[in-house]
Structures are given as C-alpha cells and as structure tokens.
Amino acid sequence: MCCVSDLLSEEPVIHSGRKLTFAAGKDTGRYWDAGAANVHWVIATDEQVEAGINEALSRVKSEGVFVEGNSFSEFVIPDFFIMVAGSEGHKMKGSARRALSRVSAVYISSASTSTGVESIRDLFRGTPLPSLVPFFNSDQLAPLAAYVGAKIRTSHMALTTYG
Description:
The protein contains six helices and five strands; from the N terminus they run E-H-H-E-H-E-H-E-H-E-H. The protein is of the alpha/beta class. It has two domains: 1-66, no CATH class; 69-163. The strands form two sheets. A three-stranded parallel sheet has the order 3-4-5, sandwiched between helices. A two-stranded antiparallel sheet has the order 1-2. Residues 156-163 have low confidence and may be disordered.
C-alpha cells in the first residue's frame, strides 16, 4: 500500500473495513493486529485531503479514535497529538512542520539512548513546538501511555464539566 498514485481519482477515496485495508507488515495491518474495530484509509491529493478526512470521520461511530498522519491536524483539532520521530533521520516533512504547534508529546521511535533523544530535541529547537512538550523514547512506552491516559481523562473531564 505504499504507492497510491494509481488509486487517486477526481474525488478522495476512502477504504474502510478489514477486507479493503488490511495489509500484513503495513501500518493498516498493524492497526488491525493491535485490535482496531475499524480502519479507514484516506487516499487523496493535497487538494482533496480535507474532504477525504471529513468523509472518513463521517464513518466513525465511536469515541477513542486513533488517527495516523500529520495532515489531519490541519483540518481537525485533535484532543491529543503524538508526533512520532525517528532518531536516525534529521528531515521533517512539511505537514509535520505545520503540525508542530498542536503537538502534545513527541515519541522517538528508534531512540533508546539519551544521545538519540537529544539529537531529536535539537531538530525541534527553533520550531513552533510548544516548549513544555515531553519527549519519550522506545524504552518509555509505559510512561507515554500513562501520560496520554492522564491527559485524555483530564480533557474529557473538562469537557464534561464545562461543556
């Protein structure tokens, strides 16, 4: 599912359900293997992304939705946004750079040492990333999960109390 140019059309294309989205070894397959109730895959040109996201969201009928991709945050304000970075590369996609001001935490997928974490921190210096955003590495999945859980509970309680 890496190359989608032959799948593009005049309108965004949304594939839903295991039959259309499962691919072993790909992100969509990993979502299913991790217990996803459904997976929606948006295939769109840059001009179609917003319409594709809105169409995919119209198919979601539950809370606790996980969305992969930076472009989503340009059109929908996420309750919690984890930016995933690899420690080996020092390039940032434009969509990632535009999303930095909305990031809640940074997960460094391949860094288990403080040197790897620091190289990624250096990459983010001077960007719109909020200064108090915590960084987590691959040895800190449990603390990351606890942080996400605490922030989501707090956000939900605030919405319930003040909404």
